[in-house]
Amino acid sequence: MKKIIKMYFxxxxxxxxxxxxxxxxxxxxxxxxxxxxxxxxxxxNKKFADELHDLNKPLSYQSDSFNLIYSxxxxxxxxxxxxxxxxCQRILKKGGYLIVKVPYFKSKHAxxxxxxxxxxxxxSMDYYVKNTFFYHEYRFFxxxxxxxxxxxxxxxxxxxxxxxxxxxxxxxxxxxxxxxSNLFVFHNIVYVLRK
Length: 195
What we know:
- This protein is of the alpha/beta class.
- It has one domain (2-194): 3-Layer(aba) Sandwich (Rossmann fold).
- Helices cover 27% and strands 22% of the residues.
- It has a 7-stranded mixed sheet with strand order 3-2-1-4-5-7-6.
- The radius of gyration is 17 Å and the shape is globular.
- The mean pLDDT is 92.
């Protein structure tokens, strides 16, 4: 019975950015959508950004500065992704969150933009999370996030999408290498990584 209750709550879990907002929050690549209670950073948009910064270069913040770093459709544009992830790890406080929303690699949105240089699967962030196969076998640096949650199309509440999403996250290899991933194409993936 406990297993059924746990499955029910996991199935009905929803992503809500407000649940992660802390005292110091950083919004990387705000574009024309700045967020309240965040330091909004962008490369081009002077009108909406609090600061301008090239995310392919080291971040100019002190270590352990932020409770939350959020990015919406930005990491797919970053040429030096490993550097940015390492910098996010450095400037996050212990227990802080890095939340990254990107196009899912099977979505047409992943390939329609010619400035996209990175593509993301369910397991793409496993390299940076302790106790995952890819971190254990191929880690790029010693620092690692403690945990990760994944949400596929979190803004689509349909029962079928939630059911398939739940299966896909639990059985990523099977899902992504089967016809199911072509029948049920997700558009966005959200990674919630805790330091």
